[in-house]
Write a structure and sequence with these properties.
The complex is a heterodimer of chains A (359) and B (199). Chain A is built from nine helices and twelve strands. Chain A is an alpha+beta fold and 359 residues long. In chain A, strands 1, 2, 3, 4, 5, 6, 7, 8, 9, 10, 11 and 12 form a twelve-stranded mixed beta sheet that branches. Chain A starts with 14 loop residues before the first helix and ends in a 7-residue tail after the last helix. By secondary structure, chain B is mostly helical. Chain B is built from ten helices and no strands. The longest helix of chain B has 25 residues. The chains are: A alpha+beta (359), B mainly alpha (199). At the A-B interface, α1 of A face α4, α5 and α7 of B.
Chain lengths: 359, 199
């Protein structure tokens, strides 16, 4: 076999065949162009459809009726119930704005005073609360955000009751606050002095800011942001966090006596701690050592600035009087709870109590 | 100017004057979108293209030529060296042939088209040795049964008379790959020969 040269002739192409072939080439090019145009139209139509659906979804998206609004309280507490079950309680003489620039997020700004949030666990956008340049991001928790302006400066604080929140300052993440943790920043004049101020915090918010490790984290973060810790008076008391840790450890172990003892210790050093007051009453009830449970719960219900503690204490009082068979006191407590919390979390339990059947 | 005189329809008289212009200048003009230059290139290479396509897939040669030129004009911008147009065009034809063979095979598998035998008796050159002519006849009679890649290298070797190196360059393959495919083709041919002698 030879290695080069064609061995097979192909049929000759006459002028007609060439003409036909050229027409075919042109037809193919035209059809390709038409196909390309069709594809372009299809892509454009699909893009329009997607945009249209997205736009419709945005338009139909339920929006908060509070968008862009401000709420200012007078002498009484105002409660806002959001559609997802989240509640906001605005303390007297406070101002709460709904951030206008956060589509997709639920965002409030505490401009003055104090607001308590109980946030339902969320699947959609984050729940954000701002105070000055602090931002608190949450998923599902209960916490207070407070801004107090005095002659010497402004204190902004965050107190978490359960769950966790992320605190940012000037857009930079500072730290995560867990249950029973508190964080505050003091702004003096135009400077940005800041730091923890548990002693200065008069609220019944249980705990001191943080254990040693988080405090170190916070301080380093404060250095990074230029916020320096506020000077605090020397405090010889044992750390509230350590005392609460001890109480919680005992609770986890089911050691009621040790738990109650820990609450007593907390109250010895921090008598204003209304959560400890409540927990001591509650632990007494649970262990049937109800001698002073009623007075403790009454104290918690009366003194706590935390609405959750107030409500829980009032509900517990109803239960306690019911257990003891003290119908008169039970009904009085029941009436007080239902008047204060007609839609409260314990409403059904409270309504079912005081029937004289339990003791 | 020749390209202006050509117009949208073919004038065989004018076509004959095309060789006066270089392929490079036609390619450059065609790349710029000149319809007349594209037509001139078509005129210049349709014979070679059709011959190659016919040898690769006899019954679909015209389809392959049309596909190849439509594709070539579309991606002419990719051709950096205008001088290389003839070789590049052959590669485009081979790609079009490969697509056509695969399509045919698929249609055959789905039962839409059955392979037709090709009689090349009258087209084998007189100077082709008898044993080569036998091989060519055997290949074309069993063409549809060869795997696509084996079929391409066999035809380029047997019908086009190309060397292994030339086939490798044309198909953008390594020489060992071409040799392997040729060996596979030889094995198949052997099997067909034995099958033929038995029957």
């Amino acid at each position: 076999m030879t290695e080069s040269g064609q061995k097979l002739r192909s049929p000759e192409l006459d002028a007609g065949a060439v003409e036909r072939l050229w027409s075919g080439v042109e037809a193919r090019r035209r059809s390709k162009m038409v196909r390309r145009v069709r594809i372009s139209y299809a892509v454009a139509a699909a893009a329009c459809l997607v945009l249209g659906l997205w736009g419709t979804r945005q338009l139909l998206k339920p929006r908060s009726g509070l968008s862009g609004a401000s709420l200012v309280t007078g002498a009484s507490v105002q409660r806002i119930d959001l559609a997802d079950g989240t509640t906001v309680e605005l303390a007297p003489l406070s101002k709460l704005d709904v951030c206008p620039d956060t589509p997709g997020d639920t965002c409030f700004r505490v401009s003055h005073g104090k607001a308590s949030f109980t946030v339902t666990p969320r699947k959609s956008g984050p729940f954000v609360v701002r105070v000055d340049d602090i931002e608190v991001r949450v998923v599902g928790t209960a916490f207070d955000v407070e801004r107090v302006a005095t002659a010497t400066g402004t204190t902004s604080s965050v107190t978490v009751y359960h769950g966790a929140v992320d605190v940012s300052l000037q857009g930079r993440w500072l730290r995560r606050l867990g249950a029973s943790e508190h964080w505050s920043q003091v702004l003096e004049g135009s400077s940005t002095d800041g730091g923890t101020s548990p002693a200065a915090e008069p609220s019944s918010a249980p705990p001191e800011p943080a254990s040693h490790e988080p405090r170190a984290h916070q301080e380093s973060a404060d250095e990074a942001t230029g916020v320096r810790p506020a000077a605090s008076p020397p405090d010889t008391r044992p750390s509230r966090v350590a005392l609460w840790d001890k109480a919680r450890a005992a609770k986890r172990l089911g050691d009621t006596e040790a738990e109650r003892s820990a609450y007593r210790t907390i109250l010895r050093y921090y008598p204003e701690d209304s959560l400890a007051t409540f927990e001591l009453g509650r632990a007494g009830m649970d262990s049937r050592a109800t001698d002073n449970a009623a007075s403790l719960l009454e104290r918690a219900a009366a003194s706590s600035e935390n609405p959750l503690i107030r409500e829980s204490a009032q509900a517990r009082l109803v239960e306690l009087h019911d257990q003891r068979g003290n119908l008169a006191a039970c009904r009085a407590s029941q009436a007080r709870y239902l008047a204060s919390y007609p839609q409260g979390s314990y409403r059904r339990i409270v309504e079912a109590a005081c029937s004289g059947r339990s003791h | 100017m020749v390209t202006e005189a050509l117009g949208p329809t073919i004038d065989p008289g004018k076509v004959r004057s095309l060789p006066e212009r270089s392929v490079s200048s036609l390619v450059i003009e065609a790349k710029g979108g000149s319809a007349s230059a594209q037509q001139a290139l078509f005129r210049r290479f349709v014979g070679m293209t059709h011959a190659l396509a016919w040898r690769l897939v006899p019954h679909e040669a015209e389809d392959i030529v049309q596909d190849a030129f439509a594709a070539a004009f579309e991606k002419l911008g990719d051709l950096s060296d205008p001088e290389a147009f003839p070789g590049w065009m052959r590669a485009v034809v081979l790609q079009a042939a490969r697509r056509t063979i695969r399509r045919q095979r698929l249609l055959g598998l789905l039962g839409f088209r059955s392979p037709r035998p090709v009689d090349v008796q009258d087209l084998i050159g007189r100077s082709v040795p008898a044993d080569d002519a036998t091989e060519i006849r055997l290949v074309y009679s069993r063409l549809a049964r060869f795997p696509v890649e084996v079929r391409l290298v066999l035809i380029l070797k047997l019908a086009e008379g190309m060397t292994v190196t030339e086939i490798a360059q044309e198909l953008h393959l390594s020489e060992p790959t071409v040799k392997r495919r040729l060996r596979r083709g030889e094995e198949l041919l052997d099997r067909y020969r034995k099958g033929g002698s038995r029957s």
